[in-house]
Amino acid sequence: MPTAIALSEQVLSHRLEINARPRRQDWFEEPAPQRSILQERQYRREQLAIAFRLFARHGLHIGLAGHITARDPEWSDHFWVNPLGINFSQIRVSDLLLVNSAGEIVVGKGPLNRAAFAIHAALHEARPNIVAAAHTHSTYGKAWSTLGRLLDPLTQDSCAFYQDHALFDDYSGVVLETDEGERIAKVLGERKAVILKNHGILTAGPSIEAAAWWYIALENVCHTQLLAEAAGTPQPIPHEIAALTHSQIGGPGGAHHTFRDLAAVIVREQPEVLQ
Fold first, then answer.
1. pLDDT at 177 over 70
2. Which of 16, 186, 213, 218 has its CA 20 to 30 A from that of 197?
């Protein structure tokens, strides 16, 4: 009669696929997919719509403010953006607008948020490597922006932005002209994020996934430092360690995979987002 241990081993062998040879795998190994222009356009539109739903889930939208853009893969001076007046939680792929460099709607039905055009058109023009950029009036980003300071490397997560974010300290009202967008782009430089003094935060990246996750992460970093400073006197991570940590976690790879996992939940629970 087989022992309990033997039975357990039999059940385990039936339920699990045992590797012929154990091995380490510390990161994702799948190759980047190759897509046609049409496939890439549809992919970007889908990820952009999902990003809005994800921002809504994280409470990163308020009123009519906020926009995320994605450069079109064929017409590099055009970008996809949300129309003014549709709540982030309701945006679908078919709602997105394609806008040209003159601020005219090429695909979709407006209206277009003028601030979205003024800021993002300048960013996309100044940085050809930017595929997407995100800006909303999220609570902790706004609160931190009033201090007129860069964030400190207080935690491992905040090191993702160490020496990789800038401060734009020239608030002059609602951004409606591209010249202010150009000044924001100049301050951003090659970094992934910028704090807009008395306004909020903005992130930009080589993919929608990266720009969107970095925004969520930056909002969390702002929240964390506000809490830490309210509780006492935080002790920053030394420069050498902060710089090393940035080199380990500051790239777009982790942002891409984090966003992808969150996006899968949105699509499963809200499949109409892809319509």
1. no
2. 213
CA–centroid distance for 26 within its chain: 23
* Most confident of the ranges 23-37, 51-65, 165-179: 51-65
Spatial distance between the Cα atoms of 133 and 122, rounded to a whole number of angstroms:
11
- Provide the pLDDT for residue 16: 62
Q: Determine the Cα–Cα distance for residues 246 and 11; give it in Å rounded to an integer.
A: 44
pLDDT in tens, 88-110: 999 999 999 999 999 999 999 98
Look at residue 165 and tell me whether its pLDDT is greater than 70: yes
Distances 53 to 5, 86, 106, 221 between C-alpha atoms, Å = 48, 11, 24, 21
Residue 7: band (very low, low, confident or very high) from pLDDT cuts 50, 70, 90: very low
Secondary structure of the chain as H, E, C letters: CCCHHHHHHHHHHHHCCCCCCCCCCCCCCCCCCCCCHHHHHHHHHHHHHHHHHHHHHCCCCECCECEEEEECCCCCCCEEECCCCCCHHHCCHHHCEEECCCCCEEECCCCCCHHHHHHHHHHHHHCCCCCEEEEECCHHHHHHHCCCCCCCCCCCHHHHHCCCEEEECCCCCCCCCHHHHHHHHHHHCCCCEEEECCCEEEEEECCHHHHHHHHHHHHHHHHHHHHHHHHCCCCCCCHHHHHHHHHHHCCHHHHHHHHHHHHHHHHHHCHHHHC
